[in-house]
Amino acid sequence: MFTGIIEEIGKVKAIQKGEKSSVLTIAAETILENTIIGDSISVNGVCLTVTALTSDAFQMDVMAETLDRSNLGQLTVGQKINLERALNFEKRLGGHIVSGHIDGIGTIQDFRPDDNAVWVTVTTSPDSLRYIIEKGSIAIDGISLTVAKVDDQSFAVAIIPHTAEETILLKKAVGDTVNLECDMIGKYVEKLLGFVDAPVNK
After folding, report:
1. Does residue 45 come out as left (phi exceeding 0), alpha (psi in the -120 to 50 range) or beta?
2. Which entry of 37, 51, 71, 73 is 20 to 30 Å from 64 by CA?
3. Rounded to whole angstroms, how far apart are CA atoms 184 and 189?
4. Domain with CATH 2.40.30.20 in the chain
5. What pTM, to 2 d.p., does this model score?
């Protein structure tokens, strides 16, 4: 479980590709503090398990299911990534409850400066949009953000300078993909009440 508050920007050090899976080696500093093999770390919003450690990096297995449901298969050596260690209940919950289980992939449609903020518009599938509501929470590449606008094709968030500096979101370009995790409350409500054919949010 995570908060969506990014702790560090890491860098992909190596990628070992298998037939359907891969092994990531990620260079980091802060994330390595008190981390042990078996710990969970959010990598661009995807919950992965630490399988090996060195003084300046950690390694994680990425199975085929994860590659299919996220954009981790598009990572390249040297690419920067958002990192967060699993939630420690001794610290404040500054974002929202993030599981690290990706619901879908979005595509950055637009960046629009607005005084000290930057609006980011992301297009995604109706399957993801049905759970995205105005003023609700969304995790984009593991970043806890508030949805400011939503329609039947896209949604928008506003990025403040601190978030811009501490994450990789504004370092991306129009057309780049992002991992999306919707607020889990809506999914549970839909499942429990049997709203399997609920209309897409408009």
Report:
1. left
2. 37
3. 9
4. 8-85, 104-193
5. 0.90
Task: Pick one of 3.30.2000.10, 2.40.30.20, 1.10.1410.40, 1.10.1200.10 as the CATH number of 104-193.
Answer: 2.40.30.20
Q: How many CA atoms, within 13 angstroms, populate the side-chain half-sphere of residue 91?
A: 10
